[in-house]
Specification:
This protein is an alpha/beta fold. It contains 13 helices and seven strands. Strand 1 and strand 2 form a beta hairpin.
Length: about 300
């Protein structure tokens, strides 16, 4: 079998998955090379900065964001604001829980219990799946992901993020906040949100929507077989579905899950939000996400960053 027609799915088991016939042209070969390069960059960053990770034992906490699809032997680490809602829809169709991704509502995706998490299995079940299933994650440019999370959680009515995060942020970082703002937690501005993010003594804890990918998915401890990117979602997703022999009629959905009338967060929109910050705040935010920039080979979003 030509090297370009195979992809290593688990380095510890040294097993190969033969892609479906449609994968055997130069287009798919190019996507496979892209995968090999992404894995190489990620592993080099881990070797340089996380030397001790490979010797640590995997605990349930490390796999708490990983969803399991047993039929096609897939493990998907959820990175919020990087296509996770639609990926969970795809997993539900793969598992036979729905006939089409368009039939699955947002609340079913996020608040239902249809998909199992890896940490719900016993230790043997966790280790068996980690060593034999195809493990994948999708990432996104860190500043864009941060702005996307801010817009979603703070610029729209939200019965959780406004009272839990908004009230604490406004009380700590807005001088002379109005009584109404302190009562509702609504109206948090992006610079105030970034102040909270960078504060080592945060008044309220971290959240998965803006936590580092390196903490959510432990890629230096778990050897992911496939690293997709939000920026090349369609190509990467359909390549992955080909590799796992998904039904031919299943493709990654392109619809926007929430606030569908609103423009997606782009690099241009992200720059508009970061223009509200000082040079030092931008630098400190870059430092905060430095490992994500390094591991997933994203370039510096501003020329004055070092």
């Amino acid at each position: 079998m030509p090297a370009a027609a195979a992809i290593l799915t688990n380095s510890s088991a040294s097993t190969f998955v033969q892609p479906a016939p449609r994968a055997l042209d130069s287009y798919w070969v190019g996507l496979q090379r892209r995968q090999q390069e992404r894995k190489r960059v990620m592993q080099e960053a881990c070797a340089k900065y996380r030397a001790s990770s490979s010797r640590r034992a995997v605990t349930p906490r490390h796999v708490s964001r990983i969803f399991v699809e047993d039929r096609h032997r897939v493990l998907y680490c959820e990175v919020p604001k990087a296509g996770c809602s639609n990926w969970k829809r795809v997993l539900m169709v793969l598992a036979g829980l729905a006939s089409s991704t368009t039939d699955i509502q947002h609340n079913t995706v996020h608040y239902g219990s249809a998909l199992k998490r890896l940490d719900t299995f016993d230790r043997q079940g966790i280790l068996h799946r980690l060593s034999t299933y195809t493990k994948m994650l999708f990432v996104r440019e860190p500043f864009e992901r941060l702005v996307s999370a801010f817009r979603d959680k703070f610029e729209h009515p939200n019965s959780y993020y406004h009272p839990v995060f908004g009230k604490a942020i406004l009380a700590r970082y807005r001088a002379n906040a109005s009584r109404e703002a302190l009562r509702t937690g609504s109206g948090v501005r992006f610079p105030e949100f970034v102040q909270y993010l960078l504060d080592v003594h945060r008044p309220v804890g971290m959240d998965i929507h803006w936590d580092h990918v390196s903490r959510l998915c432990s890629p230096c401890l778990i050897d992911y077989d496939f690293v997709g990117k939000f920026e090349s979602m369609e190509d990467d997703a359909n390549f992955f579905l080909s590799l796992i022999h998904a039904p031919r009629n299943l493709t990654f959905p392109r619809f926007k899950d929430r606030h569908s009338q609103e423009a997606r967060t782009t690099a241009r929109i992200t720059h508009q939000y970061f223009a509200q910050l000082s040079t030092l705040q931008r630098q400190r935010t870059y430092d905060f996400y430095y490992m994500d920039y390094l591991m997933f080979n994203y370039s510096k979003p501003f020329a004055d960053l070092y």
